[in-house]
Design goal:
- This protein is mainly beta and about 110 residues long.
- Helix content is about 5%, strand content about 50%.
- The protein has one helix and eleven strands, in the order E-E-E-H-E-E-E-E-E-E-E-E.
- It has one helix spanning about 30; strands at about 5, 10, 20-25, 35-40, 45-50, 55-60, 65-70, 75-80, 90-95, 100, 105-110.
- Strand 5 (about 45-50) and strand 6 (about 55-60) form a beta hairpin.
Length: about 110
């Protein structure tokens, strides 16, 4: 069973930047399609961005041009660079792949 541990969440001012990280067990990041998801209070969990094994990326329309998903295969890390953060980006952010989910890291926007 894959282990995914997110970090990097916190409080950020609107318009600011934040980088989330996800540490994965084994060779997960290199071998699987990885994604970032988020869930705000009272809302359903939604997909934010994915990165496939060939490096291709996809983004939700709401974050396109502001967020960047990337990975470091040598360190087995997944990243989400958040820029021009908006109030509506506040949520619990999860990384995930087909094998499982992390516990999430909270992002608040002031």
């Amino acid at each position: 069973h894959v282990q995914l541990v997110e970090s990097g969440g916190g409080s950020v001012q609107a318009g600011g930047s934040l980088r989330l990280s996800c540490a994965a067990s084994g060779d997960t990041v290199r071998l699987y399609c990885m994604g970032w998801f988020r869930q705000a209070p009272g809302k359903e969990r939604e997909g934010v961005a994915t990165i496939d094994t060939d490096g291709s990326t996809r983004y939700a329309d709401s974050v396109k041009g502001r967020f960047t998903i990337s990975r470091d295969n040598t360190k087995n890390l997944l990243y989400l660079q958040m820029s021009s953060v908006k109030a509506e980006d506040a949520a619990l952010y999860y990384c995930a792949n087909i094998d499982g989910w992390g516990q999430g890291t909270q992002v608040t926007v002031s």
